[in-house]
Amino acid sequence: MTLFLNEIGTTNNSTASHLFVDNRPFCFVVEDGYRDKKVKHETRIPAGRYQIKPRREGFFYENYRSRFGHKFVPHLQDVPGFEYILIHIGNTIKDTSGCLLLNRKIGIDKDGNYFGEDSTSIYKLFYNLMALALERGEEIWIDIQRNPVITENDLFG
After folding, report:
1. Total-model pTM
2. Is residue 64 within a helix (H) or strand (E), and if so which, with residue range?
3. 22-39 pLDDT tens trace
């Protein structure tokens, strides 16, 4: 399974992207904003190609196992300068700490940051697609591209 994350907009503190699964549009992603120098819990991950493997420990794993019966959470491997980068449920940059938050819809909140809606249902669908790919013995990779279409100057002039 191949994922492609294409950044579509960025503000000082948030990033919105479009996620493609096997070359098909799938959902939107909300992340932290870009920083020249990493600030813990406030910086998005860099562009690159990362393998995604199941993680079977930690808060999100225990929470999603309990809530949904999930057997893992998606974990991006070997992200330079970052640890435990997951794909999970969340709607705002307060929910991310560098992770990728899946959402059906995105918008700009009154604070000027991107936010998402309907995260839980799209995450559960993504989990099912990933679980099936893993059952088939497939590796899962994500390519992240950082060339925003919309910048904060475009939004707020």
Report:
1. 0.92
2. helix 59-68
3. 999 999 999 999 998 999
